[in-house]
Design brief:
Blueprint (H helix, E strand, L loop, with lengths): L6 H10 L1 H22 L4 E9 L11 H8 L2 H8 L2 H11 L5 H6 L1 E5 L5 E8 L2 H22 L5 E5 L14 H26 L6 H8 L12 H21 L1
Antiparallel strand pairs: 1-3, 1-4, 2-3
Helix pairs in contact: 2-8, 5-7
Length: 246
């Protein structure tokens, strides 16, 4: 026989296992909060923006053909920024205890479509160091690009700045805890239905009908403690009267 579950059954399982579901979600939130605040290392991000032109010019206005040519250079400059030729100089200038490959993993170079602006972001556990690295990359790029491409076309739009009270870019404890709450609820609901499916104990008349396949024709009402005491008293009086008759 095909087993079907009604909407009423679903709500009945959720109601019966509500404490378990809520406990699972709370446990996930608390565990995630502890890990986020106490164990994960805060990572700070500093960003700088640079403008790339095809060539240095004294004219303020440029035509569309020049802009299109400049845009074609963006991918080349993105590769150059992450190259050992630039990163090695940055490591030497700041006396960093790292390698170009490891430093590259901290970088994020972004470009805007149809734009000559490049955004360089640096992630580091120390805020001041992320600022130093971002600004030094631009300084080294300005120097090395004259040697590599024989041009002087890198202009700083907004350098990275030191913040008095920097906020970590990650982790985001509130976001992590929110995700943990949703995940905990989903896991709790799934576990509740799994436990209910594996639970073979008989609790209601309907369970008897489902397991045995027979209809319930009568039930024994529960006897309260007061009724039990009354029955005990009545049996005691009957027993004493029987002793007297003997």
């Amino acid at each position: 026989m095909e087993e079907t579950i009604s909407l009423h059954d679903l709500f009945r399982v959720l109601k019966r296992r509500s404490v378990f579901i809520i406990s699972t979600a709370l446990f996930a939130v608390i565990l995630t909060g502890i890990i986020s605040y106490l164990f994960l290392t805060p990572i700070y991000q500093a960003s700088t923006q640079i403008l790339i032109n095809q060539k240095q010019t004294e004219q303020i206005q440029v035509n569309s053909q020049d802009i299109q040519t400049n845009i074609q250079l963006i991918n080349t400059y993105t590769v150059i920024i992450k190259s050992p030729a630039i990163l090695t100089k940055v490591i030497e200038n700041l006396d960093l205890d790292t390698t170009p490959a490891k430093l590259e993993k901290k970088l994020k170079v972004e470009t805007t479509q149809d734009s000559q602006v490049i955004k360089i972001s640096v992630n580091d556990p120390e805020h001041y160091r992320s600022v130093d690295i971002a600004n030094t990359i631009v300084e080294v790029l300005q120097e090395e690009i004259q040697i590599l491409m024989n041009v002087n076309n890198v202009y700083i739009l907004s350098p990275a700045v030191y913040l008095e009270k920097p906020i970590p870019a990650k982790p985001n404890p509130l976001l992590n805890m929110t995700i943990a709450a949703v995940s905990g609820l989903m896991i709790g609901v799934g576990m509740a239905f799994l436990i209910n499916y594996l639970d073979m104990t008989v609790k209601t008349e309907r369970d008897i009908e489902e397991f045995l396949g027979f209809p319930v024709i009568g039930i024994v009402s529960p006897i309260s403690e007061v009724d039990v005491n009354k029955i005990k008293g009545l049996l005691g009086r009957i027993w004493r009267r029987g002793r007297q008759d003997v």
